[in-house]
Amino acid sequence: MAAADFSRLITAAADTIAAHAEELTALDQAIGDGDHGLNMKRGFEAVRAEADAFSAKPLPEALKAVGTKLVMTVGGASGPLFGTLFMALGKDLPAAPDRNGLAAALGKAIEAVAARGKSQVGQKTMLDVLQPVYEALTQGKTATEIVDAADKAAEATVPMKALRGRASFLAERSIGHMDAGARSTALLVRAVAEAIEDH
Amino acid sequence: MSNVGIVIVSHSPLVAEGTADMVRQMVGDEVPLAWCGGNGHGGLGTSVEAIMDAIDKAWSEAGVAILVDLGGAETNSEMAVEMIGEPRSHRIVVCNAPIVEGAVMAATESSGGASLKEVVATAHELSPA
Q1: Residues 6 or more apart from A47 whose CB is under 8 A from it?
Q2: Which positions in chain A touch B46 (Cβ < 8 Å)?
Q3: Which chain B residues touch A81 with a CB distance below 8 Å?
Q4: Res A18 pLDDT > 70
């Protein structure tokens, strides 16, 4: 991937997180500790500030650098979880991935995030968006269909009962609210898919 | 100092510091001890960077046992251990134990020259199976 392309992905991701920071915070206030929007925004702005340096690296190294930056700047439990997602993608993606390469790396990254959060699909977390995106990728779906799957998956966390993270303390009361991490993940999927499509 | 180091990681700097005070008073200065708490931006939370610093501060060739409070502290501590990397990461354990009791018991065990494995086992005894 050319440096300019990766820089565009970073900008698209940081833009969407910034634009939705208040919404993410509101979602997190309902069932978490209400810092998700601000934390994610701080992390992605820190990544944006180094977009040029990161983009100059080969793709795997660039993704690892993004992940490390997120770990160090997002804070909360989201930092290690989103950081691990990008670091794991960097570990398994070839320098010039095709769809199969991307799907395989995402599959590994999902395992890494699940291990980091000691979580699995169905527990009202970002995994509930990542897994359907992975499946859509392996099924050869179009970018639009993948984005659609991500949005629907985030929406589908509303009736789920949280079993991980602070929302799990609320147990039954977590039902009826969308998971903030699932929403951020869907936003990132849309931003990246659209940035790649526009190219 | 070759006693096992103890690191206390709480979402609240007050809880972390208070726990460290209790350890110092009950166990003395025979144990390398460090604490961190707060998200690094003035709020409640935990920071991977602060945890890595605390591990450095409490580092001992005998290893380091980390005591945490809520889930995010555990996740961030595990991330910090991974980022510190090998070979040191093999000698750092995030304990499954209540933070205050765990820190005091682990430090007491450490002050007697126990191994990392023994220190961690003592802390784990405090958790219901």
Answers
A1: A10, A13, A14, A54, A66, A69, A70, A73
A2: 75-76
A3: 75
A4: yes
| Tens of pLDDT, residues B19-43 | 999 999 999 899 999 999 998 878 8
- Note whether A71 contacts B83, CB cutoff 8 Å: yes
Q: Do B76 and A79 touch (CB under 8 A)?
A: yes
> How far apart are alpha carbons B48 and B63 in whole angstroms?
19
Question: What CATH architecture is A3-198?
Answer: Alpha Horseshoe (1.25)
Contact B78 A165 (CB under 8 A): no
Indicate the pLDDT class of residue A1, thresholds 50, 70 and 90: low
Show the CA angle centred on residue A101, arms to residues A54 and A47, nearest 5°.
20
The answer to which of A96-100, A108-112, B94-98 has the lowest mean pLDDT is A96-100
Residue ranges and CATH numbers for the domains of chain B are 5-124 (3.40.50.510)
Quick check: B79 and A164 CB within 8 A?
Answer: no
Expressed in angstroms, the distance from the first to the final Cα of chain A is 12
**Residue of B9, B36, B79 to mutate for A, most A C-beta atoms under 10 A:** B79
Query: Which positions in chain A touch B75 (Cβ < 8 Å)?
Result: 77, 80-81, 116-117
Domain ranges for chain A, please list them. 3-198
Residue A70 has pLDDT above 90, yes or no: yes
Q: Give mean pLDDT, residues A95-107.
A: 92
DSSP letters, B5-54, are: EEEEEESSHHHHHHHHHHHHHHHTTSS-EEEEES-SSSSSS--HHHHHHH
Tell me if residue A17 falls in helix, strand or coil: helix
Predicted-complex ipTM score: 0.77
Is the N-terminal amide bond of B87 cis, ω within 30° of 0?
A: yes
